[in-house]
């Protein structure tokens, strides 16, 4: 079964330029997690990923990391997802908005 977490907003330090190192910018994190389908039958949180707790951990990890590159931010988010023992496989996409004038966004997708 795939559990999708869409549109997690994270305000954090992200970027290489000196002015980016002093202000928060918003990232969007989307994750597709392969998990056991036990919760579909049991209807119990214990049988699946607690995505409220997982999104808190992703947010905290990205804030603490103060990444320079979105590639690294995607790896941080992926590592948090993979650390959950109920996640068998994860695909994470991190999007940064407004990095370059005239470019809506840049994204990186990692999986493992």
Describe the structure.
The protein is an alpha+beta fold. 30% of the residues lie in helices and 40% in strands. It has three helices and four strands, in the order E-E-H-H-H-E-E. It has a four-stranded antiparallel β-sheet, covered by helices on one side. A hairpin with a 2-residue loop joins strand 3 and strand 4. It is elongated, with a radius of gyration of 15 Å. The two termini are 16 Å apart. The model has no long low-confidence stretch (mean pLDDT 96).
Which features does this protein show?
elongated, 3 helices, 112 residues, single chain
Oligomer: single chain
- Which strand order do you get reading across the main beta sheet? 1-2-3-4
Instruction: Indicate the radius of gyration in whole angstroms.
Output: 15 Å
Query: Mean of residue pLDDT?
Result: 96
Largest sheet: 4 strands, antiparallel
Contiguous helical run count: 3
Q: How helix-rich are the residues, as a percent range?
A: 25-40%
Distance separating the two termini:
16 Å
Shape descriptor: elongated
- Low-confidence segments: none
Strand content: 35-45%
Short description:
With 112 residues, the chain is α+β, with helices and mostly antiparallel strands.
Task: Chart the SSEs and their pairings.
Layout: E1 2-12, E2 25-35, H1 38-42, H2 51-65, H3 70-83, E3 87-100, E4 103-111
Antiparallel strand pairs: 1-2, 2-3, 3-4
Helix pairs in contact: 2-3
């Amino acid at each position: 079964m795939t559990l999708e977490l869409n549109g997690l907003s994270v305000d954090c330090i992200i970027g290489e330029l000196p002015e980016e190192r002093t202000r928060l910018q918003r990232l969007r994190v989307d994750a597709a997690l392969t998990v056991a389908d036990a919760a579909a039958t049991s209807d119990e949180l214990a049988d699946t990923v607690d995505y409220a707790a997982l999104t808190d951990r992703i947010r905290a990890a990205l804030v603490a990391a103060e990444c320079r590159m979105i590639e690294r931010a995607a790896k941080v988010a992926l590592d948090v997802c993979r650390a959950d023992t109920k996640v068998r496989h994860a695909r994470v996409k991190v999007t940064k908005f407004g990095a370059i004038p005239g470019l809506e966004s840049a994204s990186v997708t990692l999986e493992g």
